[in-house]
Amino acid sequence: MVVSRAPFTRRRRILGTNRRTISPAVRRVKRDAQAAGLGDAFTLKRMQFDTKIAVVLREDLAVWQKANVTAFLVSGIAGSDPSVVGEPYVDGSGNRYLPMFRQPVFVYAADSAGIRRAYERAMQRGAELAIYTDELFTTNHDDANRAAVAAVPAESLDLVGIAFRAERKLVDRILDKLRQHP
């Protein structure tokens, strides 16, 4: 009987106990944490969150459009709940940087029908959405954006992206059958 050592090796790699598999940067951070008296308090653990932040983009968008839509959509999430944003970052020289989300953002790709399906499921389940429609590519300020959305009934919105934050299981149910963006 052959016993695979892969699970043990993988676990060592994730936890950083195999010196050869740790990047020099991680090794340096761990060393600095120990020097600061934190001991082994600094470990690489995968965080579990009760909620998920999800962005769904229409897969045929140009790269610049995907970046633009994602930025606008996640700004809606950040603006709706200040608790999703962490503390400001400070580098080793004392320079301060803006805070970011406390949790990862999962980005999915879908065709128009897939986005519409996710939109309908989110609306039925009471998730608060940020939306981006194709018409918003032709507007140039916030009032015009809102007017463009207000002029179209919900069933006719030409969605190119949606974003929301909800309980993990709810997000998974809403986005069932969608794949993460490559």
Q: Summed up, what is this model?
A:
This protein has two domains: about 5-40, no CATH class; about 50-180, Bit1, CATH 3.40.1490.
Q: Could you characterize what this model shows?
A:
It is a single chain. The chain is α+β, with helices and mostly antiparallel strands and 182 residues long. The protein is built from 6 helices and 7 strands; from the N terminus they run H-H-E-H-E-E-E-H-E-H-E-H-E. The protein has helices at residues 6-15, 24-35, 63-80, 112-124, 142-150, 168-174; strands at residues 51-58, 89-90, 96-97, 105-110, 129-133, 159-167, 179-180. Strands 5-6-1-4-7 form a 5-stranded mixed β-sheet, sandwiched between helices. Strands 2-3 form a two-stranded antiparallel ribbon. The radius of gyration is 21 Å and the shape is elongated. The model has no long low-confidence stretch (mean pLDDT 84).
SSE inventory with pairings:
Layout: H1 6-15, H2 24-35, E1 51-58, H3 63-80, E2 89-90, E3 96-97, E4 105-110, H4 112-124, E5 129-133, H5 142-150, E6 159-167, H6 168-174, E7 179-180
